[in-house]
Amino acid sequence: MTVTPNSPSPHRLPVVIVGAGPAGLTLGNLLRAASVDCVVLETESRESIERRPRAGVLEEWAVRGLERHGLADNLLARAERHTACEFRFDGERYRFPYHQLTGRHHFVYPQPLLVTDLVREYADVRGGDIRFGVRDVHPHDLDTDRPSVSYTSPETGERQVLHCEFVAGCDGARGVTRAALPPERARVARHDYGIGWLALLAEAPPSSDCVLFGCHPRGFAGHMPRSPEVTRYYLQCPPGDDPENWPHDRVWRELRTRLAAAGQPPLTEGALIERRVLDMHDYVVEPMTYGRLFLAGDAAHLVAPIAAKGMNLALHDAFLLADALVARFTQGDPRGLDGYERASLRRVWDYQEFSQWLSEVYHGAAAGDAFRAGTTAARLRRLFTSPVAAAAFAEQYLGTAERY
Ligand code: RFL
Fold it and tell me: Does the pTM exceed 0.90?
């Protein structure tokens, strides 16, 4: 397909995309490929979004979706395939071979690498217009058929206005587009877990070939390989805890205790290059659409990193919204846009429910409640004694249900 470059000063753009994370960049690439003109606005610099460490686990359907649109060449060449995860509890290890059960696997590819690939493809290969470092972004007139987005240019300090037909709000959990929903129309369904996770990145090779979940009376610990040099770890901690309370020695002592399993070699330690506390919570904003505004990704729904689902949901929205906008612009067909929210939220709520379920598995042993500790242990045992329970878990963990 021939792709024309964006015109230098488009009069009325089909789409303005606010935010250059996985959702906004995937949407931008798909629109460019279908010759639907758009501009992406991003508050950070290119270097900053290409370095921001976050997710790493991608589900197979999401990778296949990127591949179908020519966006997965590097990913397929470099990502690791994960075929199992391991629970550690009562001092033993229990390997859960999900590939053996389902024929499916996870891809592990750090989010900064995916973002780097998507920016390069959008800006350098497909000639897309992306404006970094913009400030004070505001959407306007969303409930009319002539919306616009204004921002302050970092080069000139002047206000610029982009007139458009649709606005895609892909600006993440701290963006501005969600706030454009009138409060009387918006409902934010929120769930607080009442726990914190100390999220760590260690300059250390993984200590196992797979993801490890330590379900320990002192609290949850997680081990997530990211690359041969870097490993993500998590430690359950009080919500709002200060990362300064977690010096190097304390971190590694807790990780060793909570991830201990008979006969296993000690963890490979390394310098901690990221240390931040996440207050674990989920939310879903409804409606996800308002007039000419369509929210996508974390702007619309956040799922705590318990089950590694957030980036996958951001990509799911981008695929749906791109298909819907392309159908609207190329065939005048509005049905995709009309059904966008419903199609997105079915998977979103399913993943939210799974995260809640899995949270109890991770955190129940440390709840300080003998009853919850007992039911958590039963949940864990069931995964390794009941093939039906194992199959159901694998389907949810991998996001492979036939219908949502
Ligand atoms: P993003 O990635 O937050 O991108 C939003 C972009 O919008 C910009 N922005 C604005 N731009 C213009 N105007 C404004 N007013 C703006 N305000 C903000 C931001 O600078 C940013 O560039 O949202 P998106 O695209 O919806 O993608 C969501 C994912 O990033 C997120 O769900 C995942 O990172 C969640 N997540 C994980 N998801 C997975 O699927 N698998 C994982 O393994 C996984 N691990 C994680 C995670 C999130 C984590 N944190 C930090 C909460 C691990 C962690 C530690």
Answer: yes
